[in-house]
Each structure stands twice: as C-alpha cells, then as structure tokens.
Write a structure and sequence with these properties.
A hairpin with a 2-residue loop joins β10 and β11. The protein is of the alpha+beta class. About 55% of the residues lie in helices and about 20% in strands.
Amino acid sequence: MRHDIDSDEGKSREQLIRELVELRARCAAGGQPVGQLTQQTPGDLPEREKEYREIALINRILRVFVVAGGDELFGQVLSIVCEGMGCRDGIFGYIAEPGHLVCPSLTKMLDSCEVAGKCIHYPPEKWKGMWARAIAEKRSLYTNEPQPVPKAHLAIRNNLAAPIIFQGEPIGLLNLANNKNDFTDADCGLIDSMAERIAPLLYAWIQKKLREDERTRNEAELRQSEKRVRRKLESVLSPEGDLGVLELSDLIDVPALQKLMEAFYAVAQIPMAIIDVKGRVLIGVGWQEICTRFHRARPESARYCLESDTCLSSGLGQGECRLYKCRNNMWDMATPIILAGRHLGNIFTGQFFFDDETIDRTLFSAQAKQYGFDEENYLAALDRVPRLSRKTVEQGMSFFRKLADMISQLSYSNVKLARLLAERDRLTASLRESRAKLKAALASMTDAVCISDAEGKIIDFNSAFASIHRFRDKAGVSGVLDRYSAIVEVYTADGQPVPLDQWAIPRALRGETATNAECTLRRKDTGETWVGSYSFGPIRDKGGVVVGSVVVGRDITQRKRTEEALKRLNDTLEQQVTERTELAEAQARQLRSLAVELIEAEERERRRIAQLLHDDLQQIMASARMQLQAAVENTGAADPLLNNVERLLKESIRKSRSLSHELSPPVLYQADLFA
C-alpha cells in the first residue's frame, strides 16, 4: 500500500481521525475492503502478509498519535517502528523552529551513550552523516556498512534514515540502526510508507506544539511586561517611587513630538532626532539617506553611529550642547534630556556639513570601499547632505537646548502631576471608603448623630437625627442651622428659652464640649414637647483648627417620665414609712406605759403580800408560839408532841420572814427606789 502525500495536505485533525478509523476497519478485514478479499489468489499471499504487517504497524503508530499528547509519543512510536523493523536502536524526531532537529525519543539512549555534551537538540550546523543527507535530499538512505562514530558513542553496524516529508518540506526524521539483518530496499519502502502516514499527524502535532510554545512565551512575556508596566506605574504614581526604572519613552508623547519636529523640519530644514541612552531612536526627521541607507545599514559603520548616539554625547550637563564630528565623518550636535538628575536621552541634529567647509570626497570614497558601499550611490547621497551656516547651527543649538529643557521640565512636571493625581485618587478612594463606613456606622446607631462643617452647615446625619426632632424622614431635615429656630424651640431644665447661639452646634464650633446636656424641645408646628440629652464637641484638623462639629443626642422623654413616676412613688413610700414609724413609736410608748403600770401593780401586790405576811401571819404565828411555850412551862412536863409543834412554828416564822423579805426587800424602800 502506498499513500499519496498530496492527499494529506490541508487535512484537519478530524479528517485524519476519520481516516484512522477507516484504516482500522481495513485492518480488521485483513488489509482490504471485505468485498475484495474473495478476489485474492494464492499467489498473492506473500504480498498480502507484507501488506498486513505494514498496516498493523501503521495502525499502532496512528493509535499512539491519537492517544498520546506530549513528547512521550516519540518514544512509543520509535518502539513500534524498531519492533516492526527488527532494529535495536533508533531515533525519532521533529524539526522545530528555527530549523533544529529535536529528538525526544533519543532520551532513552542517552544513558547508554557516553559521548560528552550529548543532547536531543541538533541545530543545522551540527547536522552531519547519512541522516543529514537524507533530510537534505528528501529521500530515504540506508547502508549496511559500519559507521564511524565518536569515541564512547554507540556502535552503528548498519543504518537506515528516512525523512518525514509534509507538503514538500522535511518536518521530521526516522533513523534506525543495528538491524539484526541487513537493510533492504523493501525496508526502505516500508519506512517510507510509515513516514508518509506519520507526516500529517506529526505536522499537526508540531503546529499544536508551536501554538502551545507561543502561548507559553506570550504568557511569560505578558507577565514580564505587566511587571515592567506595574513597576513603571509605581515609580511614576508612588510618592516614593524610583524614577530610575523609567525610560525616556515612558515620559514623552512620542507621536506628538514627532509631528512637532516634522513641522519644525519643514520650516528650518534642520534634521534632528531624539534618542535614548540605549541608542534607540524615538523621534527622527530629516534623516539623510547617507545615514539610513548606508552608515546604519552595515554593522561595521552602524557601530560608529551607536557610539555617536551614546558615548560621544555622554557627560553633558543640563542646558549644555556639544558639536562634534562622528566616526563616519559627519557633523552632529547633541544636547541632553535630564529628568531629576538622570540622563535619559539626547536631542541630536545631524548629519550636516558647514557651508564654509570643503568636503573631502576622497575620504568618503575610501569609506565606501572600506564598508562595501556602492561608491556612486554613496557619493550621490553625500552630495544631498545639507550644508548649514554656522549661524543657523548656533540658532539650532539654542533652540534644541530650550527644547531639551522644556521636555525635561514637562516630563518631570507630568510625573509630579501624575503622582498628585494618583494621590488624589487614593485619597478620594480612601475618603469614599471612609464615608461608606461612616454612613454604615450612622445607619446602625440608635442615637441621633449629625456632623457640621466649620460654617455650621449640617453635612451628614442619620435617620435617628430626623426622628428625634420629629421629622418624617431624612428628606425633611434642612442642612441650614438657622432654619431650625423657626421649627423647634429649646428650653433649659428650668423652662428658660435657649437662644440659637447656645445650641449644641454653635457651642461646639466655639470649641466647647458637653456630655449629656439635657434640654426640653418643642415643635412650633405641632406643639409636641420632648426632652433631649446632647453630647457635642468640635472637630479639629492637624493644626488644632476647628473645622466642624459632631453632635450626638437621644430622646430621654420616656426616661424622664419614668424618673418622675419613680420619684412620686418614692415620695409616697417615704410618707407611708413616716406614718407607720410614728404609729409604731406611739404603740411602743403605750406598751412601755402599760409595762410600767404592770410592774408597779405587781410591786404593790408584793408589798401588800409582804406586809400581810409581816404584820398578820408572822404575828399570829409568833403569838401562837409564845402561848405554846407558856403552856409547856405551866404543865412542867416535856411533851414531845408539843416540842415538835413549837419547832414547826419556829420554822414557819423563819420562812415567812424570808418570803416577806424576797417579796418586798426593805433595802428598796430604804434607797427610795419605790414610790
């Protein structure tokens, strides 16, 4: 089977996949459409076996291209090819921009190869040997002779190299070595067939890789560019930014200056350019053909141009100008552009000759021969170089000095303006953020808050401020303080009216402060009255100057009512306590009086009983004892019974006296303790 390479040109990946599916179907049918199998003869069997082997190898290779995505597919494809061709070693690579042969499959051979400096990238200058010839001649080559190789390189017994061609150009290489048998023309045909099938898929893979590599490079360049731009923006916009990272092209308006210089050249016919310190031409008008077509076109002479653009113009101070003849024997004039002490570039005028000097044409003829210029055209360009008078050059030098100074001043002014604008934007953003936070804080507060400027105009307040002063919403609140005197009346705690200049805001603007100052407020339109508590103070700037005021208030009417109710309740309770105390004291006095009366009555009763015992009972018992003693004496007989009766009477008299003394001791009366 042979595949026409032209049929693969312009095919999409989808078309190649469809072709792969068809090829697999053919492999499943034995390499031919099913309808043709019955037409094969026994004599075709060897050819069919060869075709089966070829189709099977190609089918496996195409499957790798479909499944694998990275560099690993080269090693897998090479393994299949080496296995099918009976080779031990080989390489499979692709040709990438800018013409390098890249062999990812070679990485598997690097471990066994001991050549110093081995790699998988081969630039065109390192292409050599039979595989290089195969790529150059765009055809397969093979040899069965041992190949000379460097020391420590793998031994090459035989070699087969096949370029992979797509749209007439080599895009890759299959190179096999060390076949167990000699290579033949049939092997060459088989590898050509495989290279044909691989070519469109390899081309698609290379294009995809190129796109991915380009995207990776672009992303890296974009990141670097973003870093450079961010660094330059920071250097311009930040007050502490380093101007050292800025270049002249970052600070001047190149298109605008280009138009200005073109207009100047149209009037004065003085060629000029603005070139940065790296030799890059930013603006140029009136450049002579001898410079653009000849001196700057050849590296040898262009080196002198760069030297003039950079070295010969160095060391100039701001406002200075230098006239010199460059190394290519043309007159130039330079004045520096300096920003914040940094030399960023130069304004050049040239190339020209003075009108009073003689041009050495022999010298320029020698230069033409030295650098390989066309002498006739070079001398013709020399004749077109402008010749200026020394007065014109002096006037031009004066103009360019002023222009350089203007560019320096404008550039630095632009930097300062950009920094001021950036600082303004930062402050504006910070102010906006602070105001948003302030509004959120005010909205969340239940206390009334208002903020005024130094003139007393209310510039901010919350909804609580509107409600405490009995407005329907914030829209009804006026920002002018004087208008409130027609809406609200303010009184002190003792009912005295408070004039407007003694209200919270005017007092705060005079530097006064207060905490929980109470007053009574009354709406003139509705007559509603309430009590408010206000705290206020001034807002000062860094210098201590009052620039506004802040007032915080709350409606304490309900609190005052509650306090009054509590006071009335306390007064009632105190009165009740007093009355009950007086009642308790009266009752106590009454109890004390009753206690005294009870004691006196008890004492009187004691005295009565004691007196009764003393005056009556004791006298009776004493008389009875005396009579008993008299009776005993008259009888003259000792009667025990009578003696016992006498003893009992004696004991009774003693106890009666003792009881009489206990009930009413004589000492109390002697000390006059009883009335």
